[in-house]
Specification:
It contains six helices and four strands. By secondary structure, it is an alpha/beta fold. The protein has one domain: HUPs (Rossmann fold, 3-Layer(aba) Sandwich). It is globular.
Length: 179
């Protein structure tokens, strides 16, 4: 979590829908929080953050499959390089709230396995079967095309697009005058 700028006193909310991915995130976030608190024991109790005050940011359950699906949605809509860079692992919203997505490298199968081994029961959203939604249609096509094989390949493409976008943004210098 340190890679996301999250420390022992950072206050986070976890977005939970009841699906395997969000419940795995909630469980992993709880375990990380407990571990961070144990490591933070020397601090006084008054300096620790409240469990009910989530003003620093929140965690989202997006995983590797979501990033692959987003890539294909953006390709189908003619997105440029920045759009093909995938779901960002973190970003700061206009109001200063930080969103982090620590599971972007985890697969749906890994998250379901985590829930199963931890005895966590999840709910499958019946609307995920509705192929009139672009994301569900793409998910269905990817399952038919050996999703796990494609995920690694598309993740590499997304990472390359993200790196190229970052390089381009660092090369662009703001102009102080407009011709």
């Amino acid at each position: 979590m340190a890679a996301f700028g999250v420390g022992p006193t950072t206050r986070l909310a976890v977005a939970v829908s009841g699906g395997a991915d969000s419940l795995a995130l909630a469980d992993l976030a709880r375990k990380w929080s407990e571990k961070a608190r144990r490591a933070d024991e020397p601090q006084s109790r008054s300096s620790r953050s409240s469990h009910t005050d989530f003003s620093d940011g929140f965690e989202s359950r997006h995983h590797a499959g979501d990033s692959v699906e987003q890539f294909f949605i953006r390709v189908s809509r003619g997105s440029g390089l920045e759009g093909l860079a995938g779901i960002p692992s973190s970003r700061v919203l206009a109001d200063g709230l930080k969103t982090i997505r620590p599971l972007l490298t985890a697969t749906k199968n890994e998250l379901s396995h985590h829930c199963t081994t931890q005895g966590i029961t999840w709910v499958d959203d019946p609307t995920n079967a509705n192929l009139s939604f672009a994301r569900n249609h793409i998910r269905h096509l990817l399952k038919a095309a050996a999703r796990n094989t494609l995920e690694d390949d598309v993740q590499s493409i997304v990472a390359a697009c993200a790196a190229a976008t970052s390089t381009m943004q660092s090369q662009v210098k703001p102009s102080s005058t407009v011709p």
